[in-house]
Design a protein that fits this description.
By secondary structure, this protein is mostly helical. The protein is 69% helix and 0% strand. The chain has nine helices and no strands. The chain has helices at residues 2-8, 19-26, 32-37, 51-55, 66-86, 90-115, 118-121, 124-150, 154-163. Helix 5 crosses helix 6 and helix 6 (90-115) runs antiparallel to helix 8 (124-150).
Length: 166
């Protein structure tokens, strides 16, 4: 991770002009302890980089609390999925629809945030794609909830597919 941060911010890092001199000195027969002890105080062994300043990012919120919620939804999906198809009812269908859409939304949101970055595609496209993702997620959830309440529901639909014979 530190290497990625250094590479991303390589234009901001100002290495010491003595970095090449230190590489030559390190290749000499002097021991490392002699270099550190002050035998050659004018030579910087490595450029000093403050990584803490590069680790800070402009984040909109604390995402550390979302991770346990995502994992809880995933574990809930492991239990709800068979129940929806074995004993379908409106409550289980709604829980399944909400958990599934939330799970897909968080996964696709991570992809959009990671791969449609403003530094690569400009400042407008990431906002547009995130807005389209929210629109897609809201419309999918609305459609699934409408289907659960005004039609047979997700569980009964899958059961009817199982009954179809050739």
């Amino acid at each position: 991770m530190a290497l990625a941060i250094i590479l991303r911010n390589s234009t901001r890092i100002q290495a010491s002009p003595n970095i090449f001199k230190s590489a030559v000195t390190l290749n000499s027969r002097k021991s490392f302890t002699q270099l550190i002890s002050g035998a050659n105080k004018n030579v910087n062994i490595l450029p000093r980089i403050n990584l803490a300043s590069y680790v800070k990012r402009n984040m909109s919120a604390d995402h550390s609390k979302l991770w346990p919620i995502e994992k809880a939804v995933t574990i809930t999906l492991l239990g709800i999925t068979p129940l929806v198809f074995i004993t379908p009812n409106t409550a289980l269908n709604d829980i399944f629809a909400i958990a599934t859409v939330a799970h897909f939304h968080w996964g696709l949101e991570a992809c959009v945030v990671d791969y449609v970055r403003p530094i690569v595609v400009g400042p407008v496209l990431p906002k547009v794609t995130l807005a389209l993702l929210y629109l897609l997620s809201i419309s999918t959830l609305g459609g699934l909830l409408y289907y659960n309440h005004h039609s047979v529901g997700i569980g009964n639909t899958v059961k009817s597919f199982w009954k179809i014979q050739k």
